[in-house]
Specification:
The structure holds two protein chains of two kinds.
Chain A (H helix, E strand, L loop, with lengths): L13 H20 L10 H13 L5 H6 L18 H21 L3 H19 L7 H16 L9 H11 L4 H7 L3
Chain B lengths: L1 H20 L12 H5 L8 H26 L7 H27 L10 H33 L1
Helix pairs in contact in B: 1-3, 1-5, 4-5
The chains are: A mainly alpha, B mainly alpha.
């Protein structure tokens, strides 16, 4: 008979929790900085990257998908002028990145922000990791950082989730929406 | 006195986070720090000295806002909600005074309230973050001391 020993639950100290919160803030700042080279109303900075993604995607069919959505009707590979769907779709990407930045910087529904960051980073990995001049780990690390922030409640220190989490957990005992919302803090 | 000291330290730490952001920006590290001197019309010829002076001024301003935060609490224990809201309001005040009015006055802009979308986006969220951090650090300390005391 083997002896069963249960692993002790891991409890983070205040110092570690604050360290994680600082990490979250700096990852949020990383996303925040990347808003400025593709500002509205044209989002022109994004165009060259979407073109590269359509040419170097590692997932079969992903390039075609981009060509028939973001790049539909585009007469040139160097400028988004004349594209039919580029601006509205680029606006969605830019807004999603803004949501990630605000969520991670402020620790506001941090896990939701981190999930969104994971999706956006995975998309970048699929499209750009193997394109010329890129280091594959750039996007790999971005995915891993985002996944890490999904796993730990990094917004519950130095963030709005510190206030939000106990309220949502309490309300979650009576309301389903609050229980669902509490998964994202 | 306790609330003032706690506010001062929280202000120092929150502004230190803002200052650290300047070491992960494009170009040379600390490139944005001289703009803090510019709010008060100070210009130093030596770029290194200018960055360091901007860094220290930012920390001092953070401390001043932290003292204001502490003074507003009037030696009482406060809730997390109140701390975050007060911090947020002070962050907005920081943005209004320094990033909007003083920057426009020093740049001889047509109005002290003139603002572009890019400038708003690059300054407002970070200044509000300063306020939220100030409130969060303050209330976390308060709760830790309360737990240690009981």
């Amino acid at each position: 008979m083997g002896e069963h020993t249960a692993a002790a639950p891991i409890t983070l100290s205040e110092r570690s929790s604050n360290g994680l919160a600082l990490l979250r803030i700096f990852v949020g700042y990383l996303w925040f900085q990347q808003l400025f080279w593709k500002l509205p109303p044209t989002f022109a900075g994004l165009y060259a990257y979407v073109v590269r993604e359509s040419q170097h995607a590692i997932l079969p069919g992903y390039g075609t998908l981009l060509q028939h959505s973001f790049l539909a009707g585009c007469p040139s590979l160097s400028t988004p002028t004349g594209c039919t769907a580029f601006v509205p779709l680029a606006a969605c990407v830019w807004t999603a990145e803004l949501v990630v930045a605000i969520s991670l910087l402020f620790g506001l529904f941090t896990r939701f922000g981190a999930m969104l960051a994971t999706i956006l980073s995975l998309q970048l990995y699929v499209g750009l990791a193997y394109s010329l001049g890129e280091w594959i780990w750039t996007y790999g690390m971005l995915v891993l950082l985002a996944l890490f922030l999904v796993a730990v409640p990094a917004g519950r220190r130095l963030g709005v989730d510190y206030w939000l989490a106990p309220r949502l957990q309490e309300a979650g005992q009576h309301h389903r929406w609050a229980r669902i919302a509490s998964w994202f803090v | 006195m306790q609330t003032l000291r706690r506010g001062l330290l929280a202000g120092f730490l929150a502004s230190l986070v803002l200052a650290m952001f300047d070491f992960v920006r494009d170009g040379a590290p600390g490139n944005g720090l001289p703009s803090i001197l510019h709010w008060f019309g100070i210009a130093l010829a030596d770029p290194t000295l200018s960055r360091w002076a901007g860094f220290f001024l930012l920390i001092v301003l953070g401390g001043v806002f932290g003292l204001i935060f502490g003074a507003l609490q009037r030696d009482k224990l406060i809730t997390a909600g109140r701390a975050l809201l007060t911090g947020l309001a002070l962050g907005v005040l920081w943005w209004l005074i320094f990033e909007l009015v003083l920057t426009n006055i020093m740049n001889h802009a047509s109005s002290p309230f003139s603002l572009s979308f890019g400038r708003f986006l690059s300054s407002f969220p970070l200044d509000v973050l300063f306020g939220v951090l100030l409130g969060a650090i303050y209330v976390q300390w308060q709760e830790r001391h309360a737990a240690e005391a009981s």
